[in-house]
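task queued by scheduler; priority normal; single chain, no ligands, no partner chains; default sampling; output format set to C-alpha cells
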Amino acid sequence: MPDTAADIRTARRRAVVIGGSTAGMLAASVLATRFHEVTVVEADRLPAGPEPRKGLPQARHAHLLWSGGVAAMEELLPGLTEELTGQGAGLIGVMADLVSKAPSGQWFRRFTDSRHHMIVCSRDLLDAVIRANVLARPRITLLDGTRAAGLAGGRDRVTGVRVDGGDTPLDADLVIDASGRGSQAATWLRALGHAPVEERVVDAGVAYASRLYAAPDGTLARRYPVVNVQADPRDAPGRGGVVVPIEGDRWLVTLSGTRGGQPTADPDAFEHFALTGLKDPVIGHLLAQAKPLTDPVTTRSTANRRRYYENAPSWPEGFTVIGDAVAGYNPVYGHGLTVAAQSAIVLGRVLDRHGPTAPGTARRIQRAVARPVGNAWNLAVGQDASYPGATPKPPNFVERMLSRYVDQAVAAGSENPRALRGLLDVMSLKTPATRLFAPDMLWNIAVGPRKGPLPGPPLSEEERRAAGLN
C-alpha cells in the first residue's frame, strides 16, 4: 500500500543514487520530489561545465537523443530543450534534417511531415546542462570523487551504501544503482545471498573511431543535416558512419566497423575509411572539405549487454538498478539516453502509486524499468545478432522475425511517408514494436504507394554547395 499522510509527515526519507551520469541525475531529479534527502555518489570528479571526464569515454562519440527521449527529459526537466538549443544544440526534424542510408541499402527520402525530432549536441554539453539543472534543486547532495564499495544491509533489505574510505555506510530507504556498464550490482546481490542474475551479451565486435572537425565555412549560416550511412548486418564486416553537426560550429564524426572491418585511431586512415570503407562515399567527400580539430579516439565498449534483474527469484527491499547498469546497447542505435529518461519516468510513477518505502516497491520499479529496456533491446539485438560471432546463441524466432519485418518496414519507409511515420514511432522509442503491426503499417508495407528508390544521398543543391561537394 502507498505510504499514508502520517508516514510522510513523520518519516525522514533518504535515497542514494550510485552514478552521476545522465541516468543517475535523472533518477535523482525524480527522487528529490519524493524523498527528503537524495545523495548522488559518483567516482569521478564532475566538471562544472561541458568538459570531458574519465569515467565516460563514450562521450567522445556521436550521440543522438530520439524524440522519445526528448519528450521524457522535457517531462522530467521542463525547459531542458530550450536551454540546450540556447547553448548551441540542434533540434532537428526527422527526416527533414536527416540524410540517412538504411542498413538494407535504401536512402530515406526527406519527408517533412514527420512528427519526430532529435536533439544533437556533444554528450559533454548534454550532461552538463542536465547536471546543472538537477544539482541546483534542493534536497540533492553530490558526493563526487567517491566510489561506492558495496551495499549495506542484508538479504531482505538494503539499508544504504558503503563507500571507499568511509567508516559508516550512507543510510538510505532506497538505493538506485545507475553506475553504468561497469555496475557491480550483480556481484553485490550475490554477496547478500541472492542467486546469480541471468545475463545476455550480443557483441557484434563493433569498434568506433571519432574525430571533431571544424564545419566548412559555407555551412555555418544554416543547420546542416545529420548525414548517416548505416552498416548492413547481412554483409559483414558492417561499416557505418555519421556526421553530427554540434555546438561550436563543429562536426562530430563517428565511423564504425565490426570484426574484420574496424576503424583505427590512425589520423591518416580516418578519412580514407570514410571514403572507401562505407556503402556510400558521401561522408568521405564531406570530410575532404572540413578541417580536423582533433585526432581520432576509439572505443570497443559497444556490446549489447542485458541483465534480467526483473526475473530474479528473490529481491531485496530498498534497492533498484536502472540505466546502462541494467542494459547497455550498441551506441549506433542511439537508444541508451532515451531508455535512461524513460526509466526515470516509470521510477516516479511506481513511487507515486505504491509509496517510496512500501513493501515490494523496489521490485515493482525493477519490473517496470524492464519495459523501456526491452523495447530498445529487441531493436538492437535483432540487428546485431546477425553478425558472425555476436552471440553463442542464435537469434530466437521472435528476434529473427522482428529483424526481417523491420527490414520490410525500412524499405517501405524509405519511399512512403506514412510507413516512415510508423517506423519512426518505434525507432524513436515513443511506442513499442507492436506499432509496426498496426493495420495501417501492414497495409503500407504490403501494398502502400511508393515513390521509388533514390539514386544517392538526398542533399539539396544548396547543401551540396555549402559543403563544397559541387
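post-processing summary
- Confidence is low (pLDDT under 50) at residues 1-10.
- DSSP finds 14 helices and 21 strands in the chain.
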